[in-house]
Write a structure and sequence with these properties.
mainly alpha
Length: 70
């Protein structure tokens, strides 16, 4: 579930999988459950899909801008 959540933000599958493994081993179980509930909520709410799309656009724009300035 966390991997899919990270991929919503534009991460590739390999990076999302790698980060998910790291995160799951460090998080307190209570934090993990709370994050899981948040992800479930995000998957149900139509409004969240809109702001996720906006966020993804901003991240991609930032990455492209950063690459152009290097």
């Amino acid at each position: 579930m966390l991997k899919d959540f990270l991929m919503h933000f534009g991460l590739d599958e390999h990076t999302a999988e790698e980060d998910t493994c790291k995160i799951e081993h460090v998080l307190n179980p209570k934090t993990a459950r709370t994050l899981e509930k948040f992800i479930e909520f995000m998957d149900r709410e139509e409004e969240s899909k809109i702001w996720i799309d906006h966020f993804r656009y901003l991240v991609i724009s930032y990455i492209l801008l950063f690459k152009l300035t290097l």
